[in-house]
Known about the structure:
Growth Hormone, Chain: A, mainly alpha, 3 domains, disordered N terminus, 0% strand, 22 helices, single chain
Amino acid sequence: MTLQSEASSAPGQPDYPDSIDATVLKVAGVVVLGAIMSILDITVVNVALPVFQTVFTGEQHQLAYSTVAWTVTGYTLALATVIPLSGWAADRFGTKRLYMTAILLFSLGSGLCATAQSIDMLIGFRVLQGLGGGMLMPIGMTIMTRAAGPHRMGRLMAILGVPMLLGPILGPILGGWLIQVASWHWIFLINVPLGVIALIYAWRVLPKDRPEPSESFDFFGMALLSPGLALFLFGVSSIPSEGTANAPRVYVPMAIGLLLMVTFVWHSFRPRHPLLDLRLFANRDLALSVITMFLFAGAFFGGLLLVPTYFQEVRNQSTLHAGLLVAPQGIGAMVTMPIAGALADRIPIGRIVPVGLVLILAGMIGLTQVSATTSFSLLIVFLVVMGFGMGATMMPLFTAALKTLRRHEVARGSTLLNITQQIASSIGVAVMSVLLTSHLNSTPLAHKAMTALKDPSLAASLGQSAIARGLSDAASAFAHTFWVAWVLVAITVVPALMLPRRRRNDTPPNEAPGEDATAEPVLLH
């Protein structure tokens, strides 16, 4: 029996089977495998950033942290670029074909990353990898929605939430273990056999494509936003190496990038189907959710990137131990994310998100006090509390924003949220790495002390007292950067307190009885 034959007669509200059958579970397996590949990759690479600082230059000539952070920023920029393209391309070429293409691009990019001979090559290959990774989640979500129907989306969101929860836990551990027992190349090579398995699985399980006529794609908007954002972030990331913001390498790309982005905002109100539908900001609840998401993602994910680096560079922990020390944060998120997701269906979002942000502030205030000797047990407690807050913030924000939209607006609204998260994460990573590098450059002894931890000859020449002072200076640089992240999270509380605090009718206003009930949302990651 088809899904349509089981639907109820209520106009615009098909009644899909209540249980999730074997066919849907097989399709879910394909999507979850792709999601695990994409999400694990992000957290695995975070642990490897200190390794990238020396692997291409040697221990005596470390690359700037802001430079190696582009291996993350370039990947997330590629994600942000390709996400809005996914919906148009799925209709134009078919979901199965596009999903398999995304897996192929991601796997190819992974294999090429392992062959990189310089940091520039690695960043370039990470961009290619991100083009594939950016399509895995939105296209996977489209496949899942079409297979199961919107009536069972709550449980499907829980299934797809598995890789979101496992990524922060397993990624740092897997990355640290692979680097320690093999080499950094294997954090990328491991994706190749997984990609082959995912390709075969998708080919066997996914239904045949039926491409449909699609909306026109805003190529001009894409040509404005993507290079504009990349140029702006390049300028910001060049500040530490130039030593000042008053350098052509800094202000020229920043100015051009800002001009392109401002032009994009003006352009986005002209086409019927813009790259980002900024007209949706007329919806107050969506606008508040997007603002809250932007501030939260920039502060939280930018600061989160520094944690494994602190453990490795200041505390002299191996990549594996650093991964194990960061994992408790993912465990904290795993506890609260399903609870917050269930509560979001019953109580107003304005009563959930502020609590999550307060938990993040409570945990992050501990990171602002880190020293070269802070107890690991205490740091784990701080990270767990931050994880509690993260789990209580992300999913409720996403769910509440989409609830306020009419059915035909859901896909555009979820794209806007997804793009917001990726852009904010990229800016947060760039800003936090710039601040950290600037602080470290102001205390040359910090660099020498961190290098001395891995170089016995340098340690002997410096002496223990000088190393201790240098490590104290380095820890202070991390603490000052965490303070900036803390302040940004505190600012995020302001729009969060303006989110709905009274229960409303979940049916969006002006919903016509015959409107499409099957618009596919795009899952955040």
